[in-house]
Structure formats: structure tokens, C-alpha cells
Design a protein that fits this description.
Elements lengths: L1 H28 L2 H21 L2 H15 L10 H19 L1 H21 L12 H18 L13 H24 L2 H27 L14 H42 L9 H17 L14
């Protein structure tokens, strides 16, 4: 369990690095839609090449087809990648208007609450995980940790009605982790699950990008810095690792670990690779520490309270 949680924290750290890379690419292009398409598209190219050389990956696709035809796997479980596309689009539409801080709070709220529900109803792989005191307290502490970490960046003059979009994006992220984990179990292949995620996300983004380009056109030029195009590679590792770990710890604990990793990575980036006027504030340090406490609380076996798990 502890090793899996450490992997979850590492996944969150990769997510924060990917956000920095994709954000820099979007800024260089002055077009978040094209940056998102490049990130997803490059990941899909890498995975397509990997599938060509992987018999296990190709066999996994056939197993998924058979499972859907036999109705042992619901067809909607194949569309986890659309959630990733919606997350990227929600960044493009609302992150600038709401501010990164409020956007992050919205996503984490949706992801944390949805993670509890997904585990409770057994949507993901593994057993159902009942609500317990440590899990509820851990959820509250995580929300408090994120709110505390970004409290110095909150702006009161924002259109709060837009908060629905990052909330939905967070809810869908938890669902994405659950269905990707299920696809991994059915296909017996992490590569298959990751490939399918990128296919669906890329298709969704391609539709939106076509509409966007028809209205606003393509960027006049592409940046030449190679590191700006590493977001797809990081995304491949992120999705694959999530599909592996979610069966062990569940969607909720994975979500907490990812949030913790994001805060730790963001703190490290601000210290060792700051951008613009970014600085390390006491709130960020305190919020990051509180997120570690939340992970510890969830792992506590309280006397007299045994987390019940019901068979699927």
C-alpha cells in the first residue's frame, strides 16, 4: 500500500511538470487549443508505434472488443480519454478567467468528492471501498491543503459561475482513473489502456480543434525548443502509471496522492525553476505539508473502526 501511494505521489509530480510544459507551449504558441492537440497527438504517435511492436498491446485491443461484444465491459468504459480532453479544454476556457488558484480548487474539489463516490459504488477495478472516518477526514484535509496553498493567489474579482467547469473536470478525472484501470484489467495490458485513452482524447480534441482553427486559423510559427514537446511523453507515463496503481489503492487514495505530488512538484519547480515572478510563499509550504498529513490520516487504522469492503 505505501509503495503504491508513493507511486501515486510521483504521478502527481509528473502531472505538475506536464502542466508546466503544456502551459509554456501554449504561451509560446499563444494558442491553448493547438498546444493541447500537440500534447495529446504526440503521445498518440508514441503509443501507436509502441502498439506496432507489442503483441500484448494488440491482443489487449481484441480482448476489449470481445468484452464489449459479450457485455462484460460497458461500452462507456472505453471513453476515459474524453475526460482528459475536457480537462485540457476547461483549462483553455476558464483558467485565465478564474485564475490558476481557483481553477485548481475547483478541480481538486470535484476530483476528491468524485473519488469517494467512485470507490463507494465500485466503478473502478478492485473492491468497493466504504466511507470511513479516515477517508472523510483525509478528503477534508486535502481540500483544506489546496485552498491554503493557493490562498495567496485567489482573486475576488472573478466570474464565480465559471467554477462549474473545473468542478466537472475534476469529477471526470476521477471517473477517468476508474475506467482506465478497468480497461487495463480487462485487456491485461497497460499499453492498451493508455493507447485507448489517447485515441479517445485525441479524437475529441481533433473535433474541437477543427472548429477553432476554422475560426481563428493556425499559429504563425511553432517554437523550436525540444522540451516544449515533452508533454505527450509525460502524459503517456502518467496515464499508464495511474491505470496500474488505481486497482491497488482505489480512485480516492490515488487522487489524494496525486494532489500531494502536484503540490510537492509545484513547490520544487518554484524553488529550482521559477517562472516570471513566481515565489515560494508560506501558504504553499503549509498547504503541501497538510497534504502529506491527509495521506497519513487515510492510512491510519483507527481502533474500533475497520474499513469495510463489499464484494463487487
Amino acid at each position: 500500500m505505501s509503495v503504491a501511494v508513493i507511486f501515486g505521489i510521483a504521478i502527481g509530480a509528473m502531472n505538475a511538470v506536464q502542466s508546466r510544459v503544456n502551459g509554456a507551449l501554449g504561451s509560446a504558441l499563444d494558442d491553448g487549443f493547438v498546444a493541447a492537440a500537440i500534447s495529446f497527438g504526440s503521445g498518440l504517435v508514441i503509443l501507436t508505434v509502441a502498439m506496432m511492436f507489442s503483441r500484448v498491446g494488440r491482443t489487449g485491443v481484441r480482448k476489449l472488443r470481445d468484452a464489449v461484444q459479450e457485455r462484460t465491459l460497458p461500452w462507456w468504459a472505453l471513453f476515459g480519454g474524453v475526460s482528459g480532453a475536457f480537462y485540457v479544454l476547461s483549462q483553455s476556457f476558464t483558467a485565465t478567467l478564474l485564475g490558476v488558484a481557483l481553477f485548481t480548487v475547483g478541480v481538486v474539489c470535484g476530483q476528491t468528492l468524485s473519488g469517494l463516490a467512485v470507490d463507494r459504488f465500485g466503478i473502478g477495478p478492485g473492491e468497493r471501498r466504504m466511507l470511513t472516518a479516515p477517508r472523510v477526514i483525509g478528503a477534508v484535509l486535502t481540500l483544506a491543503a489546496v485552498a491554503w496553498a493557493v490562498s495567496g493567489q485567489l482573486n475576488a474579482n472573478v466570474p464565480l459561475w465559471l467554477i462549474w467547469m473545473p468542478l466537472v473536470a475534476g469529477v471526470l478525472q476521477a471517473w477517468q482513473s476508474a475506467v482506465n484501470g478497468t480497461v487495463r484489467v480487462v485487456s491485461h495490458s497497460v499499453l492498451t489502456a493508455t493507447f485507448l485513452n489517447f485515441v479517445m482524447g485525441s479524437l475529441a480534441l481533433a473535433v474541437v480543434l477543427a472548429i477553432h482553427v476554422a475560426q481563428d486559423g493556425w499559429p504563425s510559427s511553432l517554437p523550436t525548443s525540444p522540451w516544449l514537446y515533452t508533454g505527450g511523453v509525460i502524459g503517456c507515463v502518467f496515464i499508464a502509471a495511474s491505470a496500474l496503481v488505481v486497482r491497488i489503492v482505489g480512485v480516492f487514495v490515488l487522487g489524494l496522492a496525486v494532489v500531494c505530488g502536484q503540490l510537492l512538484s509545484a513547490l520544487a519547480l518554484d524553488v529550482f525553476a521559477p517562472t516570471g515572478e513566481a515565489s515560494v510563499s508560506p501558504q504553499i509550504v503549509a498547504g503541501t505539508a497538510l497534504s502529506l498529513v491527509a495521506i497519513a490520516v487515510v492510512g491510519i487504522r483507527w481502533k474500533g473502526i475497520r474499513p469495510r469492503r463489499s464484494a463487487r
